[in-house]
């Protein structure tokens, strides 16, 4: 990914992770693997884990520790009510921005 895409992704990664967790509970590596499968190949696992810590501290997810075959238990994250509210706000903001950017692009002749 180019630098501009990486920087833009940092700004929306929380919303993307919340959207992933709205579909199913997951642990950090699963989220990272899914992002990579979707083409976000430059996302570092550490970036996702740091984000998960932040959203846990903000009370947006519930965490369950599940035994792991290798090493310590895994933290499995699931979106709670507050997380669903935050995700809804993310989508409202996303819609606002994409609409305005679309208008700006059209006024520039689509370039």
Detailed description of the structure:
With 111 residues, the protein is α+β, with helices and mostly antiparallel strands. 64% of the residues lie in helices and 13% in strands. The chain is built from four helices and three strands; from the N terminus they run αβααββα. It has a three-stranded antiparallel β-sheet with strand order 1-3-2. Strand 2 (61-66) and strand 3 form a beta hairpin. The chain is globular and about 55 Å long. The model has no long low-confidence stretch (mean pLDDT 92).
Please describe the structure with a list of short key phrases separated by commas or semicolons.
globular; alpha+beta; 64% helix; 3-stranded antiparallel beta sheet
| Structural class by secondary-structure content | alpha+beta
Uncertain residue segments: none
Query: Which word captures the global form?
Result: globular
Largest sheet: 3 strands, antiparallel
Number of DSSP E strands: 3
The level of helicity is 55-70%
Q: How are the strands ordered across the major sheet?
A: 1-3-2
- Could you give the order of the helices and strands? HEHHEEH
How confident is the prediction overall: mean pLDDT? 92
Percent strand equals 5-15%
Number of DSSP helices? 4
The first-to-last residue Cα distance is 21 Å
